[in-house]
Amino acid sequence: MASEPLLETKELKVVLRNGRSTVKLVDGLSFSVHSGKVLGLVGESGCGKSLTCLAILNLLPRGVVREAGEIRLKGEWMECVPDARWRGFRGKYMAVILQNPMSAFDPVFTIGKHFMETIAAHCGAGDRNSFSLAEDVLREVGFSDPVSILRLYPFQMSGGMLQRVMIALALVHEAPLLIADEPTTDLDVVSQSRILDLLDRLRRDRGMGILLVTHDLSVVARMADHVAVMRDGKLVESASAGTVFERPTHPYTRALLDAHFRLHRGRGGMNRR
Prior knowledge:
The chain has helices at residues 49-56, 83-92, 111-122, 127-140, 146-151, 159-171, 189-206, 217-223, 241-246, 251-264; strands spanning 7-18, 21-33, 38-42, 64-73, 76-77, 94-97, 177-181, 209-214, 226-231, 234-240. By secondary structure, it is α/β, with parallel strands linked by helices. The strands form two sheets. The chain has a six-stranded mixed sheet, sandwiched between helices. Strands 2-1-4-5 form a four-stranded antiparallel sheet.
């Protein structure tokens, strides 16, 4: 018997309302994410991937609304959750890492201050316990001297280091679901590999379910168990990663793969984990 999904969306629709006009941005999207598994949400820039994540997090920008569809988290349909409880749900059940770590941190706060505020907002731990927890998760993401890291300001760190700090911040509440929106886009190749290795280890060691949003098919080939392909706000194909890469059925999916192989021909191709 299949386990219940950590996250499930059914016929999700997101629209932009501008006066009397309505523009469809995400149209009828359905997928699920399970514990210990990675769903790769794939598509070109502007197809609605990030808006889908914001809808799941209940963080859509002004004027953009979830018009229809259902979101279920840990078996609970989120329509029943008042807005006041969403902040707690985001900390307890969902964690998120973003594509531009440089813009995700307040430049006037140390990394330690970011941890203190994050922990206090969701579980109210004392300073001593908070610093101990911060050190533990920083070690888990590969920092050998977390005390020094906590004293740094964001501008004193590289993009790859900040992305690992962001992942550590996502781990402090042990949320079972991680939403990773283009987590390697602004990183160099070595940092990209380190981040993907880290995400894969978290999936295996913690049993985290991961919604991996990306336009990079190499990342999907390396990480994903299942792939959902978006085009113009709609889901055009959904299948196991092996099926999508070996026997794609939709012309758009085949076009994405053909474009990727032409771009990367002679560079080693794509390796499935």
